[in-house]
Amino acid sequence: MWDAVLWLYLINGVLLINHEIDSAYWKEWELFRLPGGHAGFLILHFPLLFLILYGLLLVFQHSFAGLVFSLIVSFGGIFAFSIHMFFIKRGRNEFKTPVSLFILASTFIVSIIQMAVTLYFLNKGETI
């Protein structure tokens, strides 16, 4: 059953990373008024991508920390979907292409499932 957490984490990680690639296209740093422009946005992603990949390694090792990372990635996916839907409902045009919406919706669905499976494992206490 740990395979379920691993594959959900991997799928969600790929979706989130693709969303971040899409975010660069839409100049998300302007949407969120982040300092540093394009360069700041890229620099911000070094630790984010490292943490996503490090968390995958921890899930692979069946560790408690991996489950914590899995929850964080799940929350991240739900947040990404929610905040972008908020902006879209307020009339913003970013992320309204079919592929952008597909990535966001898929991220939301996978995040919900990943969170449920992760919480199940945390509740069972099955770590190495």
Structural topology:
Layout: H1 2-25, H2 28-31, H3 37-60, H4 64-89, H5 98-124
How would you describe what is shown here?
By secondary structure, the chain is an all-alpha fold. It has helices at 2-25, 28-31, 37-60, 64-89, 98-124. It has one domain (2-124). Helices cover 82% and strands 0% of the residues. Helix 4 runs antiparallel to helix 5. It is globular and about 45 Å long. The model has no long low-confidence stretch (mean pLDDT 95).
- The structural domain count equals 1
Number of strands: 0
Terminal-residue CA separation: 14 Å
Order of helices and strands: HHHHH
The computed structural class is: mainly alpha
Can you give the mean pLDDT?
Answer: 95
Shape: globular
Amount of helix: over 70%
Strand content: under 5%
Write down the Rg.
15 Å
Give the biggest sheet: none
Q: What is the number of helical segments per DSSP (H or I, 4+ residues)? A: 5
Uncertain segments are none
How would you describe this structure in keywords?
globular, 128 residues, 5 helices, single chain, mainly alpha
